[in-house]
Automatic annotation (TrEMBL), chains A, B, C, D:
The active site is at D230. Catalyzes the hydrolysis of 10-formyltetrahydrofolate (formyl-FH4) to formate and tetrahydrofolate (FH4). Belongs to the PurU family. Residues 11-88 form the ACT domain. It comes from Jonesia denitrificans (strain ATCC 14870 / DSM 20603 / BCRC 15368 / CIP 55.134 / JCM 11481 / NBRC 15587 / NCTC 10816 / Prevot 55134). This is Formyltetrahydrofolate deformylase. Keywords: Hydrolase, One-carbon metabolism, Purine biosynthesis. InterPro entries: ACT-like_dom_sf, ACT_dom, Formyl-FH4-Hydrolase_C, Formyl_transf_N, Formyl_transf_N_sf, PurU, PurU_ACT. GO terms for molecular function: formyltetrahydrofolate deformylase activity. The lineage of its organism: Bacteria, Bacillati, Actinomycetota, Actinomycetes, Micrococcales. Its EC number is 3.5.1.10.
Length: 286, 286, 286, 286
């Protein structure tokens, strides 16, 4: 976060125990500095008693001054909070195996400036997608994984996260399961796309099981990765219609478009700081 | 099935082991009698090796003659088949508890001639919906159910099925679980609406569990009832979008509209003979 | 608006020229009285320079005191504003012709407490829907309309609006076109459902024209009525998929379900004060 | 079309005046040669009196023999018909300007074997997308267009169509309007994607006009190109939801994903011979 003498467009996200006075305090702090709110959303969860807020604003004061103004409020109201620049491209590592559709969409959207991420590396346990990464000017790292080499592979990934300053890891149909250790090390920073409408069809081969069950809709779910496979907080889901004529291969083909869309939306919202954690659920200020 | 001297618009549905010659045989039989096909759909399932067909046609011959023409084909090709009049209103019993939304839609659609069913009775284990049935001119039967009285209640229902000639029983948010015996007695003739997107959230309180899981879509599923709760062949499903702001009550309210739509579609397709059984799945010639 | 000694759950809506300080002022006023915000949404339109806000809050002060607190702010910031009780059922007149689907849904939703309106009268230019209104305990007024009697008919309607205290008039597939005079007299208080996806197929027989055009989706649009037919600010729209097999009658049947849904959503949001006017468009704080 | 001694999987499409006997004749011809139908769909349009059919089958006879069998039927029943190999990749030219999203999706789908086309050339009136075409190994032709050079540019395109044997031209957000002459020369072989839900917002800047109108849904339409701009037979449409918060740029970004999807579906169906012309409408055997 740098100081900006001219107009600074920032985004503040916070969660805390719900109580009166939070909004007045934030609005007051902004107004006191002649700031202007460009977007503001909030939610008080009656079940958990938590309050969530996402405020975008423009001020001409230095970022440090803004921080100094907000810090006492954060302490007073016990915020879990974050202050960032609107539109800052989040350094991101995308992990892939062989399927290209999700990676292709993320790289395309990033280049078209529709996704506020900066893909600093693509990591594949196979080499298949190296040329796609190269086309988009992104370094590709081939990190194979076997049962024996998994710890070293995960260590290599963590090292890459550190060396690149990656703040987000996206599993774009990456087929290896992350160890509990890695999940905890990267908690809150890993987004996965699961090719089913969770909680239906957790685990492997969801399209085959969906086809066998005779469902009339298939779906995809993007979620934060936790140690429990496919159980992490859901960010976004979507579906498409299938029918008796379609083979499993056709389910897969159709599903790939849903996966692509759902993952790209989730990554965009996360990068825009629109997703806040609410226990095992998410608040999405879309 | 009655004989009709003038133009007879009938619908034939059949399933059988897939093999060459079925279509030619059916089309030939129709053409031989100067008949005209008004709609025809077919599907060969490579997984089960079964062939399915639904043909609507118009002929001027007597229905008995048509039957006599088709019966040898049915034997030759080992059909499981049905011949009916297009648009014949299927005698139907609707079972309800307290929630009115599904019943209200079915009765309204029936009166508007959008649903080819004839509701011969509404059965409720509570009395709440008696006036709604009465408004639509349908007899209401209050058949309460407790753990002790369940066998008698089910016997009463079966007797009603017989006395009314009902060919279809629709569980319109009927909250009692049918016994295995009843399921088998009415096999293939009972359609239920489950208020979740199966196989997610089988059983009780699906909206509460969906809300707790933090899903971003809720759904409803209509299916044929089998002895396994919520496991029967799925006929239709649909969803609607929810978000973090919505309470469980709001999930329920939104979900009721999905339930209503999904059940009405399923009942319409079944009554139009558009749904064929394919193992534990359905072929829906919509 | 009555004074409430206990907890008063109110909703404030406002629009005004956008400028810094509005949110702090509102939040401050609420906090000063020990109030708690239960929901808050806002939007600043960069195109029109207008600011919109909808705040729900709970305070224990008298309503008059709250008004007294807000009035100076309203003057200072030049608000167009409204303060009402959350959940107050808006007195509503529903106008119909022969088609029952929209009326049936509104009356059903109202009785199920899903629609915060109180239907004080149903007005039909035909008598067909009298029994439906009666079933729901709502007075039915048959006000026929011919080219000659239109002025008297509209005068009768206006008189009914006044005598019932109706704050909203819903045209639920009412087939007469309101005169410019009536539109102006009831400006902002009349919601219509048009059976197409505007701006496609304005005017008469939209399903026939959609069928002829060979569109693959049909839709419905609810909007505020203005003197320009089908041009008023759009509140909500939705669609459903059609195909080459469907006749015009099937378009109509499918479309009725979209009309029903779209109209009910629009009426609910209006009654909850979630719809604000933004020139010829709407802001919908759904 | 080549002769195939082993199993030949072919697809027959036909349209003709509706009359009894067509299906029996086709089914009979197939059965006579020991063939097996793998998919069959048909539709008789009561409005136009036309009959449409798409049959996929497998036979072991030579293609010439099959043709010889079908030709007399074609004459007898006055078919407009086509016989092709299932899965044959249709030689296709894609025309682009600057926007990459549609081209990117078509090339990606083609490489993933999800689109039965063979892109023989990409033609752009700008050079921007040359590298994308090159990445996918497809020749890129820069054919600039000004008011003066348009006839030569179109002649160059026609020459390319001939030299490559292209059977389909896809306008993937190509911003030049084709002349009447070119439209007629390529009649039935040009698919365009228009970035609105036709017939709303024909012509230029549809997203700006949609944004100004305050619609709550935006859409895209793929259609065959005729001399009347944006009037050609519609193949497919889809929509996505927008709201008051979204700027025109956000409409455009969201709309691009709809355009991409709708165009790819239309091209796939056309290439699979699933789209038949029915006057100014299409029959889509999807």
């Amino acid at each position: 976060m740098t100081t900006t003498p001219a107009s600074d467009h920032w985004v503040l996200t916070l969660s805390c125990p719900d109580r009166p006075g939070i909004v007045r305090a934030v609005a007051g702090a902004i107004a006191d500095h002649g700031g202007n709110i460009t977007e503001s959303k909030q939610f008080g969860d009656p079940d958990t008693g938590l309050f969530f807020m996402r405020v975008q604003g423009e001020t001409t004061i230095a970022r440090d001054t803004l921080l100094a103004t907000l810090t006492p409020l954060a302490e007073q109201f016990e915020w879990t909070w974050n202050l960032d620049t609107v539109g800052r491209r989040i350094p991101t590592i995308i992990m892939v195996s062989k399927a290209a559709h999700a990676l292709n969409d993320l790289l395309f959207q990033q280049r078209a400036a529709r996704l506020p991420i900066e893909v600093v590396a693509v990591v594949g346990n196979h080499n298949d997608l190296a040329d796609l990464a190269t086309f988009y000017g992104v370094p590709f790292h081939h990190i194979p994984v076997t049962a024996d080499t998994k710890p070293q592979a995960e260590a290599e990934l963590l090292a890459l996260v550190q060396s690149t300053g990656a703040e987000l890891v996206v599993l774009a149909r990456y087929m290896q399961v992350l160890s509990d250790t890695l999940c905890r090390a990267l908690e809150g920073r890993v987004i996965n796309i699961h090719h089913s409408f969770l909680p239906s069809f957790k685990g492997a081969r969801p399209y085959h099981r969906a086809h066998d069950r005779g469902v009339k809709l298939i779906g995809a779910t993007s979620h934060y990765v936790t140690a429990d496979l496919d159980e992490g907080p859901i960010i976004e889901q979507d579906i498409d219609r299938v029918d008796h004529e379609m083979s499993v291969e056709e389910f897969i083909a159709l599903g790939q478009d849903v996966e692509r869309r759902v993952l790209s939306r989730a990554v965009a919202w996360h990068a825009q700081h629109r997703v806040l954690m609410n226990g095992h659920k998410t608040v999405v200020f879309r």
